[in-house]
Amino acid sequence: MKKTLLTIITLVTFCLCANAGEWANICAGKKGATWYASAEAQALADKVLDIQKNNGGWMKNIEVSTMSDSDYNTLKSASSKAEHSCLDNVATTQEMRFLAKVYQGCKVEKYRESFLKALNMILTAQMKVGGWGQYWPRSGNGSYQDYITFNDDLMTNVLKILRDIYENKGDFADIADETTREKCRAAFDRGLQCIIKCQVDDNGTPAAWCAQHDTIDYLPTEGRPHELPSISGYESAALLSFLMSVENPSEELQNTITTAIEWLSEHTYMKNAKIADYTNNNGEADRHIVSATNSDVWARFIQIGGASGQKIYNKLFTKLQNRNKKRSYTQNGTTYTYTEYEIAKNSYDATKAYQPIYAIYSDTIQHLYYRFLYNYEDADSITDWKGCEVPTSLNALRRTSYQFLGSWCYNTIHTEYPAWKQKMDIINNASDATAYELSNGTNTGTNTGALYNFKDGFSIGNNNGSKNYSTGKNNTVKYTQGVTYTINIPANTAVTKVTFYGYDNYTGTNSYISSLNGVNYSTTDYVFPQKETAESDGIYTTQTITLNTPATGSLPFVLGGKQTCLIITVYTVETTGVENIYALDATNGKPIKYIKNNKLTINKNGKTFDAVGKEL
């Protein structure tokens, strides 16, 4: 890329970012289904097509809905369209989501073709190891942009859209043919395996993830000069939230999630705290750590210790030494020249294992590139080995311009994980029964009045027409006390057991299961404890009831006390009376295909799959 064009694109990106927000809302579907079929939406989609790169994607931070004519003309120029595509900062995936909505609204083929061109870029750009870098084509020059990238949710954004395409629903229904959908499924599975392989080995204990990982040995690696190899609280929290959304996860993936949660739980930087903005004594915008309830603080970069840390940081030092890049800084008339290797090697302190690492990144003070700092709030500077005065802490500008500390992991650990673990326990303990979850996560979005519709043919109605569908926290659905709710069960299905997981949404009194399938219970049999304070989170509780007689057709229940936010799981068996049928492997006599409870299951290479080839 010519230097002039780089400058132009940088200025365009800067200007467009100032209006960030509207374009993201449009791509997320906030305009309503009818708008995406309109002439206005198609005119905007035509601009998206005009600035699509020749290799299929788009550049990041481009606010298509608000860009000026000058910016538009620059971006659709032949030189710009010949540049690489980007997957960072939701680039390409958000344009694809917008085009899918427009195509479904108007069925104009050029929007589908543009979508598929971008999809082909994503499939082509996937590394052999299963990950993606920031750009395609990759530079091939050892840049951090070519690493496996979790930073800014790059990889999870790609995996989410691949999953949406192969599930063939909603905006993505029939936008790709079956062969392409299977390619998306295979790419998704390779991506999951890449995430599992990148889980950092902390001296024999599975930990979490860095923002970037090496494509050869999967080790944590550096990004920009202030993004040092480490374990990232920020990226790990986002990755875990995504991984917990994977349906029917393998035992290996379940173990990855559990061990990462355990490691992050044990490596909290500060309990009962959060990061808050304030104005410091110099009148500057600043951030500091303050006390807070229902909040803990983690580091964006957690230094790894022991032999694992030695291996990771020695690799960084060797890389910088081989590169031999020099950085100079003039202070009080004296110019000090360093190699990046010297800066990193001499500032690194192995005794600071599992503490936060900070760094300052500015072209005006390049002698701080790759310098390990260990103080968040202002601390005294020191004179280094060359006689130059250097900081030992961040400054106000760096604290406010980059999130080095945050509470990202708190909700993941304390809310999302318990709900996911409860769901996994249900699935893993289902035995011969099939478990179906009735939650906001499985709701179809086609609710009508007092009827709530869920996947797999289940619905819940109530005898109070004013109790429309409403959600609580963490995929729960709100249920009102005293109202009779009825779970409508699909034909040829019987419910043998029900699990209620959730919380009392109010203070003052406990909520409880008052009746299920005609059986009444006392106020103390199946209780959901009241919230401790109005501001606090509910107390998540699991209550499981095995039915005396399997329920078919309908299953009524009533809650007492207060409004309760619940995820309901029903355990079912088939009632058609089809016999179990087995096909045996001639070499060992073990079943390789069998029908049980009317479901086809296939055993292959030690793994179990359903009729459509999805691993169970």
Quick structural gist:
The chain is of the alpha+beta class. The chain is built from 15 helices and 30 strands.
Number of strands: 30
Q: End-to-end distance, in Å?
A: 48 Å
Please state the structural category: alpha+beta
Number of helices: 15
Q: Which regions are unreliable across 5 or more consecutive residues at pLDDT < 50?
A: 1-20
- The radius of gyration computed from the alpha-carbon positions, rounded to a whole number of angstroms, is 27 Å
DSSP strand (E) fraction? 15-25%
The largest β sheet comes out as:
7 strands, antiparallel
What do the pLDDT scores average to? 91
Shape: globular
Name the assembly state.
single chain
Helical content class: 25-40%
Architecture overview:
The protein is of the alpha+beta class and 616 residues long. The chain has 15 helices and 30 strands. The strands form 10 sheets. Strands 16, 17, 19, 21, 22, 23 and 25 form a 7-stranded antiparallel β-sheet that branches. Strands 15, 18, 20, 24 and 26 form a 5-stranded antiparallel β-sheet that branches. A hairpin with a 5-residue loop joins β16 (452-453) and β17. The chain starts with a helix and ends in a 6-residue tail after the last strand.
Give the arrangement of secondary structure elements:
Layout: H1 3-17, H2 22-27, H3 39-50, H4 69-75, H5 78-81, E1 85-86, H6 93-106, H7 109-125, E2 135-136, E3 148-149, H8 154-167, H9 178-198, E4 201-202, E5 205-206, E6 212-213, H10 233-243, H11 251-266, E7 273-279, E8 285-291, E9 298-299, H12 306-323, E10 326-331, E11 334-339, H13 340-347, E12 382-383, E13 389-390, H14 396-401, E14 405-406, H15 408-428, E15 434-438, E16 452-453, E17 459-462, E18 477-479, E19 484-488, E20 493-504, E21 511-516, E22 519-520, E23 527-528, E24 541-552, E25 554-560, E26 564-574, E27 581-584, E28 591-596, E29 599-604, E30 607-610
